[in-house]
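chain below, 198 aa
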Amino acid sequence: MLTKKTHSKRRESFVEGLMHILVKQGKCSHSEAKVIIQSFYDADAYEFDAFLVDEGLINVASMLSALEEYYKVPYFDVVGYFFDKQLLHKFPKYVMLQYGFIPLEDNENTMVVIASDPANSQLLVEIGKYVSYDIQFRVGLHHDILDAVKEFYDSALTEQRDEDDMYDSESQHKNNEAVFEETEDSFFDEDEDTIDFA
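prediction:
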């Protein structure tokens, strides 16, 4: 994925390169490709791959296949995949959102990362600030990767809130028991004070 904030020449190369692949794969004709490219620029859309999918011009499977050929790395569809929370906690949320990536798996020496733009040279630099693995890339759809990151952190926040609520509930229960015991002791003390031995 290359956005309109990316250097124009690199972005144009991505747009033209991706459409060339889609034409070669028989997903559209040359004349349709020219119309699609012009429509993208006229619409002032932010992401070319998202534009193609959202407008119903190319389906997700075809887009992933084209991205795989363009970046020369295997594609990975992140939708519905349950990511390892320990891996995601290795990176700040804002870094994954800014650079459009999410860690998939790791072993002793290698981490597999799904990125929307694996060719981004700055991406390896940023990842290297947090882990020292050799990085292998998979390519995925930008908006799906961002959704997966946000969903993970939203879920983690909900789990934390549930744990906090449980802790508060247990604390309140213990406090209630302590108050009850204190009240009970006070009640018996008062009874002892009023006993008449006469």
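Residues 53 and 60 are 6 Å apart (CA to CA). The two ends are 94 Å apart (CA to CA).
thats it, cya
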